[in-house]
Amino acid sequence: MADNIKRVLVKLSGEALAAPDGYWLYAQTLAHLATDLAETTGQGFELAIVIGGGNIVRGARMSQAGWIDRPTADSMGMLATVMNSLALETALNAAGVPARTMSAVSMPTICETYARQPALHHLDRGQVVLIAGGTGNPFFTTDTAAVLRAAELRCDAVLKATQVDGVYSADPKSDPTATRYDRLTHDEAIARDLKVMDMAAFALARENRLKVIVGSVHAPSSVAAILSGASPSTMVAP
Ligand SMILES: Nc1ncnc2c1ncn2[C@@H]1O[C@H](COP(=O)(O)OP(=O)(O)O)[C@@H](O)[C@H]1O
Ligand SMILES: O=c1ccn([C@@H]2O[C@H](COP(=O)(O)OP(=O)(O)O)[C@@H](O)[C@H]2O)c(=O)[nH]1
User: Fold this and answer.
1) Domain for residue 100, yes or no?
2) In angstroms, rounded to a whole number, what is the distance separating the alpha carbons of residues 176 and 186?
3) What's the ipTM?
4) Is 1 part of a structural domain of the chain?
């Protein structure tokens, strides 16, 4: 891919780890993803990864039921991202890719606590850093954590690997006439109200002039193929 991209923060939805039947975690899905990420590092990309927790808990939805408050449900969501990160760390190490989980929520008997300098050190040494626990605060999402950490860790871009292969003129799931953009600016995405990622995350990306690439996590697309330009994607750049 052009644009001088080397260090990338890959944002994966928690659902990217689930089984085809929806079960929350599936060894084959993890192994497939790890192979893709191994290929990506083999191409020379440096990777930080933020995984969501939506395959287990989404705090906003859980608290809507009324029996639990939002901050508590969000705490459970943040813990879910730690479980997902540990699962992908295991799969990456099995695929021969050195990887370590760092959590924004301190749990030193389980993994390192996220801190910027050690995370930069790991990346500089060629290790994949899995950033768990989101931002560490309720009322945020892992999209926001992805942009925040990408800015902190001097990443050249955020790759949001999601359900669709780019940013469209309208939601492609509800509008079959929607067309995909190859490239657009942050301002254009905001002015056209295109749902690239949640607004807090996207505003932070715009403020930091951070490139956001949107592509599909589903085969035949892959992280390696998106970054090498072999799979379709949309580049949002200043
Ligand atoms: N203009 C748009 N272009 C692309 N996708 C859109 C657009 N508007 C809404 N979407 C929807 O956004 C979804 C991806 O965002 P999100 O649900 O936040 O993903 P994730 O779970 O990967 O964080 C897609 O499944 C798509 O249906
Ligand atoms: O900084 C953060 C990031 C995540 N979460 C919680 O963790 C859940 C899982 O993250 P997300 O919904 O972003 O996961 P994804 O949809 O990407 O799988 C969220 O719904 C929130 O409840 C949070 O409270 N603060």
Assistant:
1) yes
2) 24
3) 0.97
4) no
